[in-house]
Amino acid sequence: MGDRDKTKAQLIAEIDRLRRRVAKLESMSRSNAREKGAPASTAEDARPGCIRSMTEMEGPVLMQDRVRNILRGQAVDVEDLGLADVQQLVEELQIHQVELEMQNDELLRVQAELQAMRDSYADLYDLAPVGYLTLDTDGIIQKANLTAAALLGVEKGGLTGQPLVLFLFEKRDTTAYHDYLHKLLKTEEAQACDLRLLRRGVSLPTSVSGRRVFASTSHTLASSEAQGRMPFHAHLDGIVIYNEHKTVQGFRITISDITAQKRAQLALRESEARFRLLAENARDLIYRYCLLPTPKFEYVSPSALALTGYTPEEHYADPYLGFKLVHPDDRHLLEAMTSGEVSKDPLVLRWVRKDGSVLWTEQRNVPIYDDDGQLEAIEGVARDITERKQAEMELLESEARYRRLVESSPDILYVYSRTRGGIYYSPRVEAVLGYSLDYLYDHPFLWWDSIYNGDRESVAQAVENFAEGQRIDIEYRIRDAEGNLHWLHDRSIGRRIEGDEIIIEGLATDITKSKRAEEALQQAHRELAIKAEALEEANQELTQYAYVVSHDLRTPLRAIHNYVDFLHEDLEGRLNEEQQVYLDGLSKAVQEAEALVSDLLELSRLGRREGSFESIDTGLLLQALIAVMDLPEDVEITMEGSYPTLNLDEVVFRQIFQNLISNAVKFNIADCKRIRIGCRVVVDMEQGGDIAQQAAYEFYVRDNGIGIDPRYHKQIFGVFERLHTAGEYEGTGIGLAIVRKGVAKLGGTVHLESEVGQGSTFFVRLPKA
Ligand code: ADP
Q1: pTM over 0.85
Q2: Average pLDDT of every residue of the chain
Q3: How far apart are CA 165 and CA 216, in angstroms?
Q4: Cys-Cys crosslink for 656: which of 44, 63, 621, 742, Cβ 3.0 to 4.6 Å?
Q5: Which residues' Cβ are closer than 6 Å to ligand 1?
């Protein structure tokens, strides 16, 4: 039913309904607007349009007033209006209702948007990575976000009304906190501070006296309470907030947990301190050399002084000190490094120390680049390797020395492995075998193959024995490149074991020449032995012959002697002078012949004598001998010193000294013929064996006679060797031959010291044992 069809009563009822509806919408609109904080839009603001339409239709003032009055709830005498007016009033109210409803919808939409924004703001606030706290000027928490609650280990909402001072870790944090709030209050500018806060476990007091809590320490935790709870490092950023009177109303503070950062800082500081300690005490030189913006030493460890003679300060003062110190020959290496060629391998450099001596270092450098990739600095460690370098150089030198020795050695030095053959030969091998070194290395078993067939087995045995630990010392023959045989004396001088291999280090000497000489010598010895045998035989025969001849001659000579004596007796006084001379000559000749035969017989007897050795007091024997020799008056014999008792053949001993003493008397023209006899102990170095075996008794017979020219010292010991005619000194020339043979029989030697006119001393050396 349209409004026009309605009765006036119905329309009045409709006006009443509409009035209530509009009133309700307006109140809703107002409350919505209040909630949004937007200036309240009233139905009246929206009204002019409607009023205008009404005015247009019915006259502005009247309709406006009517509608306003209706809306104000004032009683409008609708009853008095005509139906048309009532109908128009209803329409006006309906339009107004629609407008209000539209306005209300808009308000609801805006309200929903605002709510969504408020929610997201609340999320942002709560879930911010930092804690937000709003404190009043007493330090009581007015508002806190979720992060702040989580940081302090309290449920959301649990912080409100609590003083922040409750969450400070210890006294110095409280002090820092108080100072901080004071500073904020004083400056009214943004301030930051770091302190330690406690997380959770705090039994919060149920009520806190609200006054100036932040200035009091009475609520900080006792340290026992704090024990076992985790303090954390917090960074606080804060500003003051004002009320509408522009006076400070409190603080807005953000809290960030910087524990990890603090720990990292601490660890960094500790490690820096540790490394500095290491650097300061290291023997190596540790440095940081900055290249940008200008070159300079940024750090040089104190060891610089010991290494270079320059203090770290001297390094700091002169950025180019390194270039001045580096050895001229190594400067290019240092320049290359500072121009960016920083090698990962250690750099070996020489430097000239302050005292002028040379320092060798081995350096490890690390290039440090800036953000643009430019070489900014070089950090490094330099180690003094002077001693090592010197040792290396000495080693090289000694190696070179030994190489020279090895290469110039007349021996072949070699290294040989049974499995690999020849590994090394010194150059001498080329001269001996006639193969080049290259050829030998190409044919590692050539040496082995060149060994003379007949000797190979013994060489193989020697190598086998070497493997079992014995030394090699062997002579064998080897064929050279031309097929000639060489004798080698091969001996091991070293042994090396490499894995399963036993390696021989040896020395081979070409002994071909000495081998030949030795062979020749042996041949000569053999020939000599044959000759000696023949000689011995001849000698035996001769001795036999001499014995037979002298023995057999004795009888006819005795007969001639007798007959001459008879003639002397029978023709006494009847011979003329010439006949007498002949007969005397005959008599003398017979005597000499007899003496000769007698001496010869004595000599040959001595040669044939088997010898009976017995213990004899040589001193007593000599005294007895002198006593029976019936020496002339002008002879003075002195026996000096003491004499040993020896085990020897008495007859031979006697013959030796009888001949020496009689010669000392015979070849003496001194008025007083002084003969001195003695014995002493000597050591004969020419004898082999030890000192005891070298010791001997040396008897001597010294005279002051005519002396003997040294030219004849050897000759006079021969048979019939005389230096004088029978007219000068009589004799047979056999005496000293008997001496020599007799001394040899006793195992001794004889020699003399004499000069013409100086007397003679004959020495007879007999073995002590
Ligand atoms: P003989 O005495 O019969 O001549 P020896 O064989 O005893 O023969 O001596 C050889 C020679 O050595 C002597 O002829 C003499 O010339 C020399 N001679 C030996 N003993 C002495 C001596 N004591 N002083 C000097 N000459 C000596």
Answers
A1: no
A2: 85
A3: 8
A4: 742
A5: 659, 663-664, 667, 703, 705-706, 708, 716, 721-724, 731-737, 760
